[in-house]
Sequence to fold (515 residues):
Amino acid sequence: MKKLFLHVLAVSLFCFFSACDKGFEEMNVNPNASTTVVPEYMFTKALLDGVSFNYVGAAYLTIGGSMQQTATYKEVPAAGDKYFNETYSYNSWEAYSTAVIEIKKVIDAVSANPEDINKLAIARIWKVLIFHRLTDLYGDVPYTEAGFGASNQNYTPKYDVQATIYNDLLKELEESANALDPDLPTFSNGDLIYAGNVTKWRQFAYSLMLRLGMRLTKIDATLAESWVRKAIAGGVVMNDNDLARIQYVDGSQVAQRNFIATALLNTDYLNPQAVDNIEGGKLAKTFIDHLKETQDPRLNAIAVVWVRNATGTYVADTSSAIQKGMPNAAFNSFPADFASYSEPNPNTILRYDAPHLVLTNAETNLLLTEAALRGWYDGNPAQTYEAAVRAAMHQWSLFGQHGEISEARINFYLSQHPFNNQGTFEEKLEQIYTQLWVSLFLQDEYEIFANWRRTGYPSLTPTNYPGNLTGGTIPRRFVVPLTEESYNRDNFNEAKQRQGGTNALTSRVWWDPAN
Fold:
């Protein structure tokens, strides 16, 4: 995708400068740079940074390990595997601030122009995605005063209450979806997801509304129902062609390449991988066992074991029988059979030109299935569940021929695992969100983590590694970095007291109460 690199490259040309005193203004200005934001370029950068922040530390090591999709034998990177390290959650705070600042600059740049209604609406929708991930990870965070450091020199922003943040995020989605106008300009090629298609952005907005509305079921079911019904009425992503994705290319510049493939190939999954690696990671036993036991055809698209062929060359073998997940928190030194454990498939997940799936119809159909169970949606839960499974299988074809799953295999899987119409509500919920756990693997660990905290599914057995930081319980929140306590002490302490007086992996966000 040639446009991807052009937009990323162009962003570097648009910087901000503050004038110096005592006549040195001219010396402080780069004559080759612009002092004005070009919204299309900055929006491209905000899209890329909004999905890729601190991927290894946050999504792969912390969430992937705690949700038992990945495992490591080492201690230092074992934030999720052994609940042993808070540092990775600090890094997400800093990394996400970049996207926050970028999307604020876009919004500021387009707000004054009446012709930029669509650009403003789409930027506001993307702002919701950035902030809902941030607040879902940390709880109370700076929101109304976030991103004002450069413009207002406000380096100690207040922390907003998460309930207030959620109310505003949902309002932003509703107002932005209503404002979209197909007759007005958009970001066009600067939009790497939908190329400015306002119909699809409206669906994206209502899909986010569905996601956030369903997030409230534990804390305020009445409010949750109201927003879920509004999202469904507005129209969510339902079809394969409408899912939100960023298509990367195998280019010479890192910014062109899929950030997941780039990150994992630079850490654990050098190709071929048959010996030790940087983070000591493999795919986890809980995850691989589930795929094997259910005869899930996605196993062959997801996992490989490196084996020697007759010439002594290592090849990636996708055979189901040899796939083996590494147990979480089982080792503290290099295991002798390390090479025999499963890794991500280099021909799908670890391709530099793999897409990144931002929001899929697999997720929306699973949320609709729960909504139907609750009586908030008139659809048939068995039908939306089947649609979700089919969508989740189909999306692997976007990763190339090695990800393609035949309709015959999909049909067989569904025949063996139909929707549990006769089960209890909890049994049905477990089926829905175990399916989401598989469907969003490596694409959206944040949603896997959020839905596990909200529903308790999939059912996972915690590890209890010696010296862990959680008392042998799965982490429930990221930890705000200690720098906030130093540089924004009053606001940080106020937020900490509101959230139970602790800043720890065992703390809970507002929508995840303990009872």
Notes: The chain has a mean pLDDT of 91. Strands lie at 70-72, 244-247, 281-283, 303-308, 314-317, 343-344, 355-359.
